[in-house]
Design goal:
about 375 residues; eight-stranded mixed β-sheet; alpha/beta; binds S-adenosyl-L-homocysteine
């Protein structure tokens, strides 16, 4: 997640305070040996009781990290209009699944639905599907989104969502899916794992005792130098394949926005954020948001392999400008006090300026191959 006001990653190690989850992981590693980074992230974020997304106040200005829809309502409004346009490009089907992956507090979907009122038929057609594993966040989504006449459903797994023409939105969802890391050693790749410090009272990075299996999607060892780290995410790959297969069989589009890189990069992007500052990723699991940068080139490859068309990635700043950010800021500010207008301007600046979230965040559209180029992605 973004930590715009964050201190550097290495910045001062906080006084460690062992969490229940950390104690259990330490006991498990003592018994069975090191675990993968993917298993660690899955527990740290998703554990039904002690996982981060079930903790109080993770998202929002008062929480640990904030996201574009939490910063400015314009983000969701522009996406709402983009979705209406996409629905029209699909021939305005009367049966539509409007799917959001990882809806957080439901703010993005609320803004989408408000903006989409420009075409009441869109809202009438839409069955809203929210893919959410956290009970606490589901509750917040219900409070914010339930309304007479709206058909809202929750799903634990993507495969629980029935097949129908679909429009899918995912903002800051892929970055929290578990990744694995591999380190280039003398003779090839070895998985980076999580074991224990010599005193066995804290988690520490270590290397697998044996080489990485040859069938893993790793770059040729000759393309990397000793010490380089390569990341990939089985969960991201599976989601991308599922989404692409759904869209090619039922029709529709997915808009995925996240922070990440376009070229397949080498490097350690695992990070944790707590109270808007970076946090050591292995410290106090369950109390910080642990994420990694999204490899957009890898996602695009998987979508294409599964028959979908891919548009972008382009930067979030360019995408929002093309959708009419400036005009929306202007319209929203008119008739407001100087202070209110300044807040609207500063929110737009934070989500779109290259020095803020505009450059590091990217948007990609995965689409059924028969559809025209989506709004904002034409060159
Ligand atoms: N999209 C929101 C929140 C992003 S935080 C925003 O922009 O504000 C990530 C969200 O994904 C949370 O709602 C979290 O509970 C959910 N999530 C994480 N892993 C998930 C998984 N495997 N399946 C379903 N939801 C998941």
């Amino acid at each position: 997640m973004s930590a715009e006001e964050a201190s550097p990653k290495e910045g001062g190690k906080p006084a460690a305070q062992q969490t229940a989850l950390e104690e259990r992981l330490i006991e498990m590693i003592k018994l069975n040996g090191p675990i993968s980074i993917a298993d660690y992230i899955a527990d740290a974020l998703g554990h039904p009781h002690d996982g981060y997304y079930n903790s109080a106040n993770a998202i929002g200005a008062d929480g640990d990290f904030t996201t574009a829809p939490e910063i400015s309502q314009i983000f969701g409004e522009l996406i709402g209009l983009w979705l209406v346009d996409a629905w029209q490009a699909m021939g305005a089907p009367q049966e539509l699944n409007l799917i959001e992956l990882g809806p957080g507090r439901g703010v993005l979907m609320a803004d989408i639905l408000r903006a989409a009122q420009v075409r009441p038929e869109f809202a009438k057609a839409a069955d809203i599907w929210l893919l959410e594993t956290s009970g606490r966040l589901r509750h917040e989504q219900q409070k914010r989104l339930r309304q007479d006449g709206r058909r809202i459903h929750w799903a634990d797994k993507f495969s629980d969502i029935p097949a129908a023409p679909a429009l899918i939105v995912a903002n800051e969802f892929f970055d929290c899916l578990p990744i694995r890391q591999f380190v280039r050693v003398k003779n090839g790749w070895r998985e980076r794992l999580i074991g224990l410090t010599p005193s066995e009272d804290a988690l520490a990075f270590t290397l697998a005792a044996t080489p990485a299996a040859p069938d893993l999607p790793l770059p040729p060892a000759n393309d990397a130098q000793e010490g380089d780290i390569f990341e990939f995410s089985d969960a991201q790959r599976e989601f991308m394949a599922d989404i692409s297969r759904m869209l090619t069989t039922t029709d529709g589009r997915a808009l995925i926005i996240d922070y990440g890189h376009i070229g397949a990069g080498l490097g350690d992007t695992l990070q944790a954020v707590r109270r808007h500052a970076f946090w050591p990723p292995l410290s106090e699991p369950g109390r910080a948001d642990v994420t990694a940068h999204v490899d957009f080139a890898a996602l695009a490859r998987i979508a294409i392999e599964n028959g979908a068309a891919v548009h972008g990635p382009i930067t979030q700043g360019v995408f929002l400008e093309r959708l009419g950010l400036a005009a929306r800021v202007h319209a929203l500010s008119s008739g407001k006090t100087a202070e209110e207008a300044a807040t609207i301007h500063s929110g737009a600046h934070r989500i779109a300026a290259p020095s803020q979230m505009g450059e590091i965040f990217k948007a990609i559209c995965v689409s059924a191959p028969n559809l025209p180029c989506p709004d904002g992605f034409d060159l």
